[in-house]
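Protocol step 4 of 6: structure prediction from sequence.
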Amino acid sequence: PVVNISWDDEQQIIDHLNSIQSEFTYRRPTEAEWERAARAGSEDSYSVKAGVFGTIAKALKEIAWFSDNADSRTHAVGKKVANKFGLRDMFGNVWEWMQDKYEGSYAGAPTDGSAFEGAGSLRVFRGGSWNLVARYLRSAYRYNGDPGNRWSNYGARLVRSRR
């Protein structure tokens, strides 16, 4: 994955891609889009049921890099089991920046899946990372950071659409 990337860095990449690409547009996912993709039609916290692999901890090892199996580092993408939508690496490995601004609650958030562009400056990231325990990898877990921050467990996932 792309690591040590700030929200601001990612925006420069998005702007560049959109300036040179005529067939597609690129952007960050919204929180609503990310959570829908991560859950892949499931209501479970991690998009997998414990019964499939034995326990939640064992199930997570099949789909995510986190403190139990990551050896304190990021890993190449695509090495874990895909979810029902065919997406990999939705949990763990690196936090993924969202388009949304962070608010402590969803009060006043859009109901159409678009990004919440509230008054604050902090941005949301989702998915957890290689250095976290399982509870921080839940589909609904969210965290926030300054858009200029870069860390070894911050990364990117872009949405690509036809123009």
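Step 5 (inspection) to follow. The chain has four helices and eight strands.
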